[in-house]
UniProtKB/TrEMBL annotation:
Broad class of where this protein is predominantly found: nucleus
Keywords: Chromosome, DNA damage, DNA repair, Nucleus, Phosphoprotein, Repeat, Ubl conjugation pathway, WD repeat
Protein name per Swiss-Prot or TrEMBL: DNA excision repair protein ERCC-8
Pathway named in the protein's UniProt entry: Protein modification; protein ubiquitination
Renumbered ranges of WD repeats: 95-137, 182-217, 242-283
GO terms (BP aspect): proteasome-mediated ubiquitin-dependent protein catabolic process; protein polyubiquitination; response to light stimulus; transcription-coupled nucleotide-excision repair
Complexes and interactors: Part of the CSA complex (also named DCX(ERCC8) complex), a DCX E3 ubiquitin-protein ligase complex containing ERCC8, RBX1, DDB1 and CUL4A; the CSA complex interacts with RNA polymerase II; upon UV irradiation it interacts with the COP9 signalosome and preferentially with the hyperphosphorylated form of RNA polymerase II. Interacts with ERCC6/CSB (via CIM motif); promoting recruitment to lesion-stalled RNA polymerase II (Pol II). Interacts with KIAA1530/UVSSA. Interacts with a subunit of RNA polymerase II TFIIH.
GO CC, alphabetical: chromosome; Cul4A-RING E3 ubiquitin ligase complex; nuclear matrix; nucleotide-excision repair complex
Span of the signal peptide: none
Record's subcellular location: Chromosome; Nucleus matrix
Transmembrane segments: none
Length: 363
């Protein structure tokens, strides 16, 4: 580290090189922080969390009890021991609360005045953070498994929504209506993700074992379907042609630069794909525990070299090197199954939640 600092001071190194090295060091030294806790508000398991990117200060959580909580992650006390407080809650007494399990929560990417939640009550709600009232409610025919807003879009305000119906719904925030459907899957949609590189590119994962990549400006179907065998039909049975996994595909995540796409399936495999060509890079992560009957909420690091993947695995979180597939470590500390995890890009803090023990794991 002293070598990096000396080279930076002398102007020999790019400052990003030092930042990447320090970020990587912190990830490799992650451990449970016994001095920091989170207010326990939810009565049941926590299915989903999201940290806003404007300040990196506020965290949303959505639970199996239908409750949504906003936490303040900042510690202004000056003391090492600290409990992150809930600043506001959409609780059971709120007339607008979801009737059933909240499956996905997401901050509006451009400010903290709005967030979106979706639920097994067949609705997606767009909330005003100030009033905690829904500004818009979208109704669907089946349970909503997932939704996602583009982190970079300037030319559209679409929310991609995955439901029990095999058609992907595209809902427009401006008009307040579902304006388009994407057809091609044969079973429920378990995960959707917009590219962080190209605002019109969308990836979708389904229980039909397939992952499709779409340009939503095109009306002629998906750009391509990911094939785990890279087109080699001699390696695939007739049922496995053009499938990403040998089971339900329940997790998607683009790398920060959008060049690669990670997928997880109930075949206990994780695969890394070239997002431009759809090629399976054949990185071997070994057996990746996947017991989720719905979407698997995993995440990636940002600004490290190499980058890392954090995957809920029973009561632990498995950490893999993105491009080599090496299992780097297992983060332990929960008493029950970990349902989701999120990486904090500024402070290298990884937030995970199980039904009984919310915790923070900082470097």
């Amino acid at each position: 580290m002293l070598g990096f600092l000396t080279a930076r001071q002398a102007g020999l190194d790019d400052p990003l090189r030092l930042r990447r090295a320090e970020s990587t060091r912190r990830v490799l030294s992650l451990q449970l922080n016994h001095d920091r806790d989170v207010d326990r508000i939810h009565g049941n398991g926590i299915n989903t969390i999201d940290i806003e990117v404007i300040e990196g200060r506020y965290m949303l959580s959505g639970g199996a009890d239908g409750v949504i909580v906003i936490y303040d992650l900042e510690n202004y006390t000056g003391k090492p021991q600290y409990t992150c407080k809930a600043t506001c809650t959409v609780g059971r007494s709120n007339q607008h609360v979801h009737k059933f399990s909240v499956e996905t929560v997401q901050w509006y990417p451009h400010d903290t005045g709005m967030f979106v939640s979706s639920s097994f009550d067949k609705t997606m709600k767009v909330w005003d953070t100030e009033t905690l009232r829904p500004a818009e409610v979208f109704q669907f025919d089946g349970n909503v498994y997932c939704h996602h807003m583009s982190p970079i879009a300037r030319k559209h305000s679409l929310i991609a929504v995955g439901t029990k119906n095999p058609k992907i719904q595209l809902c427009d925030l401006k008009s307040g209506s579902s304006i388009h459907v994407l057809q091609g899957h044969r079973a429920e949609i378990l995960s959707v993700r917009w590219s962080p590189r190209y605002e019109h590119i969308l990836a979708t994962a389904s229980a039909d074992s397939r992952v499709k990549v779409w340009d939503v400006r095109r009306a002629s179907g998906s750009l391509f379907t990911l094939d785990q065998h890279n087109g080699d039909k001699s390696k695939a049975s007739s049922e496995a042609v053009n499938t990403a996994h040998n089971g339900r595909v329940n997790g998607l995540c683009f790398t920060g630069d959008g060049l690669y796409l990670l997928t997880t399936g109930t075949d206990d495999r994780m695969r890394l794909w070239n997002s431009a060509t759809g090629e399976n890079t054949l990185v071997n992560y070994g057996k990746v525990c996947n017991e989720s009957r719905k979407g698997l909420k995993f995440t990636l690091s940002h600004g490290c070299s190499p980058e890392f993947v954090f995957v809920p695995c029973g009561s632990s979180v498995a950490v893999y090197a993105l491009h080599t597939g090496e299992l780097v470590t297992m983060l332990r500390g929960h008493y029950n199954s970990v349902d989701c995890c999120e990486f904090h890009p500024d402070y290298q803090v990884r937030h995970t939640h199980d039904p009984l023990f919310p915790s923070l794991g900082p470097s």
